[in-house]
Specification:
Length: 205
């Protein structure tokens, strides 16, 4: 009788894991910073790079993830003011401190690792040529579930609000119910890869 031929099991090639040293600084060169961000994130399909030009020279770029950032708000509150600044000033000197230019809160990143973590948290990052810092604006735009009564925990009296997947929404509901200045909220990321934000709340009495 015929026997079955056994083919050797093919090993699937596993791409090398991206490792970014926590202290790796940003590069003063704009295009080198963009390249390092792309390499560190594996060039994802939802990564958007919006460059700002004066003539043929790229002065700066806003980098963000389309799936996590509010695009329309980014256009109005970040991109339009930067375009206006570049039109009225020579070079990118007016962009060195975005806090004087933008109406949104700005966080400064000095390392490549913190810049990428900011992007993965929904930040839009402004990278400027001849600057080793990135200026990040928090403009989250990912889908969120509305606050509603939990279907498995219906009550006749009391609150009809249930927690959602959004940590900030949940913290807001707790603060509305506990208006105590002694309420402490400690937020820290957990998970080696997921970097999920976790909050510990307690009354400091």
């Amino acid at each position: 009788m015929f026997g079955f031929l056994k083919h050797p099991k093919q090993q699937r090639a596993i791409p090398p894991k991206t490792f970014i040293p926590p202290s790796q600084p940003l590069d003063p060169n704009l295009e080198e910073n963009i390249r390092q961000i792309q390499d560190g994130m594996g060039v994802p399909g939802d990564l958007v790079i919006h460059r700002f030009y004066q003539g043929n020279q790229a002065l700066a770029a806003v980098v963000y993830l389309r799936s996590l950032t509010d695009g329309p708000t980014l256009g109005i509150q970040v991109i339009e003011p930067i375009n206006a600044s570049i039109r009225t000033q020579q070079g990118n000197s007016g962009l060195q401190d975005a806090r004087t230019l933008l109406s949104v809160a700005v966080e400064v990143h000095d390392s490549l690792n913190s810049t990428i973590q900011g992007l993965l948290s929904g930040q839009a990052v402004l990278v400027i040529d001849n600057s080793a810092q990135a200026q990040a604006m928090s403009l989250p735009g990912f889908p969120r579930r509305a606050v509603e009564e939990p279907p498995t925990e219906r009550v006749l009296r009391g609150s009809r609000e249930g927690f959602t997947e959004s940590l900030q929404d949940n913290l807001g509901m707790i603060r509305r119910g506990i208006k105590d200045p002694n309420l402490r909220v400690e937020v820290k990321p957990i998970g080696e890869r997921t970097k999920t934000d976790m909050a510990v709340l307690y009354l400091d009495e």
